[in-house]
Amino acid sequence: MTLSPGDTSTEFSKHIPGLIRRLADTGDLPDEELCRLLEQLFCHEAEEYRDILYKTARKVSVQTFGNKVYVRGLIEFTNYCRNNCYYCGIRAGNKKASRYRLTKEEILLCCREGCALGLRTFVLQGGEDMAYSPQDIGDIVAAIKQTWPDCAVTLSIGEHSREDYLLWRQAGADRYLLRHETADNAHYGKLHPPKLSLKHRVQCLYSLKELGYQTGAGFMVGSPGQTIECLVKDLRFLKKLQPEMIGIGPFIPHRDTPFASESPGSLTQTLVLLSIVRLMHPKALLPSTTALSTIDEKGRELGILAGANVVMPNLSPDGVRKKYMLYDNKRSEGSEAAQHLDQLASRFAAIGYTIDFGRGDAPSFR
Ligand code: SAH
């Protein structure tokens, strides 16, 4: 389809179903068309078109994964961090954060509990906390894999050397989550202090892939300074990297960060992006994130209905959950807690989905 410069929004909108179909059939569109599609789908009046998009994405997800949602136990094992990302509540500069770190034994206890609950993937997430040596992290991973050989271990602890990534891979880590945050250089600079660079983050992602990790990238929707052009760059970057997992959630401000008075990302825009990413990556593992369920009571379900197929309920010890505050009001109770998988299961049952208790590897790693 060619766009004539005289096309008005309404003129263009009749092309939307065709574009969605082409995106579903071919898994991609030229940047210019992705840009127009996002612009249109973000319009308040585009409800009818968004429904077509969600339905198409959901169908693609069900074709690959069935009406099933994978569960991962999320263990937030340290909120110490050496970095100062402007959006993040556990940034080093937040002197109000009450800091904690779990011992290896405490982490193993979480896994023990998770295993008893039926979970087969543990996601160890934290700030870049240098109090754990690379060997310490390796020992923790090895201990989990030794005790529960049928479980997958995912690390999500930021940017490290290729050497450290290799050490942890050899210790048995299966997967690594490292959102690229934004694929636009100037935007990256607005979200991070000068010390951090998109170039280095991307290098880390390529190292992780090379080392055989199932690798996760992703970004926040509605982060300060984000434009539609930034989002198209994110989509292009993901298409090039071909990650096994893609994490997308709304930006939510945290009161003790430089972005305290910014507005949160929108539910609709997040759902639209989830669906578009699903159509561009039919086999990717796509979580319906905690941030999504924080901005909307039905966020988790809406994410699944827009094509997501993973959830990561919280398995951190009770006493620390409130301290891993990446953003204001981050949810960790009720169906967000691994201890209440029954609640989660009944919420999914209500939309026609069941929990899958398998390891849930990416299709290309099975
Ligand atoms: N230190 C690790 C883990 C970071 S926390 C790392 O660097 O990867 C995990 C994710 O939470 C981040 O990648 C970011 O995308 C998201 N996050 C952080 N602050 C947020 C906020 N204010 N709103 C929404 N998501 C946020």
Automatic annotation (TrEMBL):
Binds 1 [4Fe-4S] cluster. The cluster is coordinated with 3 cysteines and an exchangeable S-adenosyl-L-methionine. SUPFAM superfamilies: Radical SAM enzymes (SSF102114). It holds the Pfam family Radical_SAM. SMART domains: BATS (SM00876), Elp3 (SM00729). (3R)-3-methyl-D-ornithine binds at S156. S-adenosyl-L-methionine binds at E181, R201. GO terms for biological process: sulfur compound biosynthetic process; water-soluble vitamin biosynthetic process. CDD domains: Radical_SAM (cd01335). GO terms for molecular function: 4 iron, 4 sulfur cluster binding; biotin synthase activity; metal ion binding. The keyword 4Fe-4S applies. The keyword Metal-binding applies. Gene3D superfamilies: Aldolase class I. PROSITE patterns: RADICAL_SAM (PS51918). [4Fe-4S] cluster binds at C81, C85, C88. Its cofactor is [2Fe-2S] cluster; [4Fe-4S] cluster. This is Biotin synthase. It comes from Catenibacillus scindens.
